[in-house]
Amino acid sequence: MIGILPSESQYKGEERTTSTNYTVKAKIGIWAIISNLKSCRLSDHIDHLTLKFAEIGVDLDDLPGVQEKYVDVFFASDADEAGECTCEFQLSRKNVSALGQLGIAVRFTVTTGRP
What we know:
Structural class: alpha+beta
Radius of gyration: 17 Å
Strand order of the largest sheet: 1-4
Number of helices: 2
Helix content: 10-25%
Order of helices and strands: EEEEHEHE
Largest sheet: 2 strands, antiparallel
């Protein structure tokens, strides 16, 4: 539809079998592109992913049949022994501009856990 194959996808109502042989039905559809760069810098991942979309020149806001669309920037970090963690990332002006060019909302999801 947009010229890029997703890293992961599912449609609403799709049935899958879990590793414990239980069948589950997807409550929502999802179409995801996942960055697998080895860099620890968020800005590198944003550059990598937004370049993919810039190359095909698609307006993500005009996708037919899509109810909710957003870029989800997911960031995970380990907490220290006390369960505390400070998560920090920086986006350059170029990153912010490139995300804006996608034409959809950006959601930041940050999670921490004990190692």
